[in-house]
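Folded chain entry
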Amino acid sequence: MDDARLSAWLADDPEHERAYAEQAGLWEAAGALADDPIAHAILRGKPEPVSAARRFGRMSAITALFGACAASLMVVATGMWGGSEQYETALGEQRSIKLADGSIVTLDTDSAVDVRMSDAERRLVLQSGQAFFEVKKDARRPFRVFVGDNEVQAVGTSFSVRKEGEGARVFLAQGTVSIREAGAKPVILHPGQQASLVPAKSAAIVKMDPDRAMAWRYGRLMFDATPLAAAVAEVNRYGGRQIILSDPTLGRVKVSGVFHTREPEAFVETIVAIFPVRLARDDQQSIVLAPAS
C-alpha cells in the first residue's frame, strides 16, 4: 500500500491508527527475537521421529512455543474498505495479515487470497493453497470464504481452508461454520471436525486432531501412519529441493513423526535411517529415493 492510501486508511477510523501502532510495536518485538536463544532453538530445531504415545502431547508444547513467536510476526495489512486486495505467499513462505475489520488471515506456502470488504459482507476468495482465518465477530456482515464452487460462512470463529484441485478441505478450530457446496444444502461444522469437499459428492466429515490439523501454522508437518507418497507431496509443497520416489511401491510405506517444513533433508535422513530406502541421487534440484535392494 502506498503512503497516500495508508494515510487515508489511518484517518478513516481511530481504531485503524491504534491497530497500526500495535503492529509497529510487534515488529520491534519481533526484531528482538533474533538474538533470543530459545526462539532461535525453536525456529532452527531439527525434526525427529516420535512414537505415537509421545507425538500428540509433545505437539501441544510445540504449538504453544511457536504460537508465542508467530504472534510477534504479524504483517500490517488492511484489505481496503469497499475495495479489493490480493495477498499471496511465495513457495516456502508463510505470513499473517490483519484485515481492516480486525480479522486475521494466515497464508500457508504458495497461497493466494482475494479480500473484499463492504458494509454488507466480508468476502474472501481462496485462489490457491491454504489459509487459516481468525474471524472478528460482526453479525451484521457475514464472513464468507469461497473456494471453487464451495462457500464457508462464519461469524466469529477460527478455521482453515485448503484448496485441493476442484475441491477443498475445511477444518474448524473454534466456533461454528456453515459449508455450502454447489447445489447442496448447507452443512454445519463443529470444533475439531474436518470436511472434505469433492465435486458431485456429499461432504465427508471426520473428527481431526487439532494439533495435527494446525501443525503447518507453526512450521511443522505432522504425520501419523501417513503413506510416504502423501508425506513427500506435503514436504515438497514448501519448496527447496523436490523429493522423488523412484519406485511407486515406496509410496505405500507408512510414516509417523513431526518434521520441519523448511528441512526436507532432515526428513530424507529420517526415512533412509528407519526404512529400507536408499539415497539414489542428491543434487541441487532434487533428492531421489529408491528401494534399498
About this structure: Helices lie at 3-12, 14-32, 37-44, 52-70, 210-214, 228-236, 264-274. The CA atoms of residues 195 and 205 lie 4 Å apart. Residues 22-73 have pLDDT under 50 and may be disordered. The chain is about 30% helix and 35% strand.
